[in-house]
Amino acid sequence: MVSGYSAAHPILSAIFGITAIKVATVKRCHVVTFFFMFGYLFVFRLSNTLKLPPSSGHTNLIEMIIVLRVVGVAFEINGSWLSAARAKKEENKNEQKDPNEKDADFMEIIDPDFIDLLHYSFNYCGLLTGPYYRYRTFDDYFHLPFSKHVNCFAFTINTLKIVPLYISLYLAFSNIWPLEYVLTEEHNNRHFVYRMLYPWALFAAFRQRIYSGLTLAESVCTSAGLGAYPVQGKNRTGHGPTVGYMKLKQMSEQDAKKAQYDFITVESMDVWGCETVVTLRDSMKVWNKAVQYWVAMVVYKRFPIKPLKMHAALFVSVIWHGYHAGYFFCIYACPFYVMAEDIYYKLYYKDATGMKKKIIGFIMWFLRSHSESYQAAAFLLLTFDRIWVYYSSVYHYWYGCWLAFFIIGLVLEQIHMNRPQTSRNENRPLVSSN
Question: If you average pLDDT over every residue of the chain, what do you get?
Answer without folding.
Answer: 90
